[in-house]
Amino acid sequence: MIYGFYHGHIASTKISFNKDTISLFTFLRRIPTVRKRVWYGLKAIARISGALQVSRMARDIMRADMLWKFYKNPVNIPLTNNLAERQIRHYVLYRKNSYFTQSERGNRFLERLISLYLT
Fold it and tell me: What is the pTM of this model?
């Protein structure tokens, strides 16, 4: 099973839905099929006896319902959190490059200053 193919299929389906190339009905019909295929592949990986860490990770992924939240509300929930990461990137870089935040106290001060600025 090639997971990259399934992840690519999910991403292209979501992008098509966002661009109104496919309907909501088509999107909601396609994703459960892919989800089942991913589930069965993870189940097969979880049964591998020689690789404890890999099987444990596969079981953790199988339990993570949060991975499919975009399917429950495809209009409002993006597939990735790239937008949120792009929004805070400037402040993270500023914090890393600030010379006066070499202590926990300086980090808290800068976090509060940025929070105050954003509100």
Answer: 0.57
